[in-house]
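Worked Example 4.2. Read the sequence first, then its structure tokens.
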Amino acid sequence: MPAYSQALQEGVRGSYSGAVESVHPDWFKQSFLVFEEDVQEATAAGKRVLIYVYQNGCPYCDALINHNMAQRDIETKLRQHFDVIALNMWGDRSIESVTGQSFTEKTFARAIGVTYTPTLLFLSESGQVVLRLNGYVPPRQFRLALDYVAGHKEQEYSFQDYLASVQPPPGSGELRTEPYFMTPPYRLAERARETGPARPLLVLFEQQQCPDCEQFHEHVLGAAETRVLLEQFDVVQLDMWADTPLQTPSGEASTARQWARSLAIAYAPSLVLFDHQGQEVIRADAQFKRFHTQSILDYVISGAYHNEPEFQRYLQARAERLLEQGVNVDIWH
């Protein structure tokens, strides 16, 4: 008897692992959470404000703290150029936004649409968000984000254009393909007429010579549980820097590069998921492992987004449901 079926019959609860508690560096700003004052103080010191939204037990937050920020050059740049303010997305501390609105930490996180942790908001001297990172990115991408904001490069470039200027796209190489990827022509608004009733659409933006993409294919897309979920999608793989012609889900003629730019895709691999009517539901433009990627896919397939707009609450409920079914859950796998 398969272990999964046996666990269901015996009522065995699965095990939960992967959660990590991290300690914030003592050089983070001890803020009163009046953001207008924080911005003024940072500006007077020649710095900018970086708001870091986390949650307890988040392994991606721990990676940011203990893998990215612990590297000497990154720590030095952060301390020289930023006042870092940590917010717990489920916390109850009082916040006053730059515009004077009152929130708690959790209502602020909801108001700004936090989907993943860590979420990073880099603020200008006027309190505007000049860059937002939704999720964990590895050190090399994180360094580029810090350089972009510390150097006030938003006055010259979008973040994607800045990345292209300092890290030109590879001139050669091939993307790793999978047998279930759609083939050209990519007429994404006409899928229903070609294949019967339209299925949800997953668009995977990658680039050549991309170690993170290779790892994603090997460890996430290659997992049997992921494949079962992907069978319920139409899946399109695009080179984010290529001039591949396509029709977007809204019916516009474009290219892969133009579409990636209009979607502000700045990390490879990035996933953008659309419902069967071509409306974007959720995206993942940061580094995610198996459990979170599979949960993102299931969030769309199950239609859970209709009733639960907060992905993190859905994620917690899905983990609990799997545990009750006897399935082991490792959120850092």
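Now turn to a second chain, presented in exactly the same format:
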Amino acid sequence: MKKILFYTFLGSMVMASGCEDYLDQVVDQRTQLTSVENVSELLATAYPKADYATFTEAMSDLALDKGPVSNAILDERNRNPYYFQDVQSKAQGSPDNYWNACYAAIAAANHALEAIEQAPDPAPYAAQRGEALVARAYAHFMLVTLFSKVYDPATAATDPGIPYVTEPEKVVLAQYERRTVAYVYEQIENDLTTGLPLLNNNAYRVPKYHFNTAAAHAFAARFYLFKRDYQKVVDHANQVFAGGNIEPNLRPWVSVYSNLTANEGLAIYTQASQNANLLLVETASLWARNYARYRYGMSTAVLNALFRSNNVTGARWVFPTYTQGDNHWLILKFREHFVRTDPNAEIGYPYTIFPLFTAEEVLFNRAEAYIQLNRTEDARADLNMYARNRIENYNASTHAITDAKLRSYYGTNNARQGLLAALLDFKAAEFVQEGMRWFDILRHGITVQHPTAEGQVLSLPPGDLRRVIQIPQEATLAGIQRNPR
């Protein structure tokens, strides 16, 4: 990126660093990277400190126009994605903000790697090198997923990717090229497979905020699912927890979460103490404050489809639903953390903690890989495992997923097709209001239709150029071509 962009990224890092004291003390981290502790501190910033949920949730089929209801929040960062229009805002929750946050994270990882290479004895830095490589791979993966066409082995060698940056910027007018999606995936895989064996969970004071080994294997499972290397999805999913035993680590919605008060529910979902949370990130974001009341979001119609109707098991999910007014619904997931800059006034920055990888995603990714590998009974077992942890008074004799249920519910005699449809439905309910549905829409070529209160029906079919989010205008200063429209 051109230097002006690097300073934009650095500004994002400083703004999002509420808990990172050393970022408040120095601007140029490189002068301080003389110990393992210094490098570890820098790596705390090697994760995108921004949310994608604001725009990916609004683009998905889990959002509907609630109309001009009371208390609805009207915001370009929510409206434009719903209308499949480019977002001009660069504020928190915008695609530009997420782009900048990813490259800020990459810059931190690259500075850490440079410091390690220049250390008199790099050996004590092995875990930090592993974290830097995996974190760099993750930020690039998120960028190529959102700002390039989804990976397709038939076209990846020609589809434009995003700049894969592997060195700290040292010139004022640095120019970058996008290369191809295939090239970006090769670099991601190289960083991921090199870094993962170096990770050491004992290197972190709070492992859930770093790429611990479980989170790294979860990332690998997601990466290979996008790459369609399904056996590797299974291999990595089975290494997240000892013996591939995922079930004890799923969120206890039936036994615990569904019995909590609203305040308790908002607090627990993103706690590091929850086994399901594999990697957490704090983001400068208004999502926790606004996600229920955005005009384009989970309306009553979406709520009814997800939670008030029987799913393929013949039962309903246990998720408690809450309202913040007319047509404003939410699942208790996010609580705002407000960091005051003035202890004597209500001035400061709002933060939202997001789970980047969870046990539930690992389970779903393994199940989908089983489906693609034609291991339908293994996939069925994983989906039944999920269901018995989301249905109150689950009874295998009545709730287990059978071919007859798949045929009746989805209208298909093909067990693989039925199981895949069930899996995507399960994921939609599990990850609603987290922005995750958009990734399934991309991978499976799902058409999104958005009706508006004015009577329009907006459609986003597979192949539509608008499915690829626009690259920031400022990136052209670094020689980066924007996406066609």
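Notes for the reader: The radius of gyration is 22 Å. The chain has one domain: 3-478.
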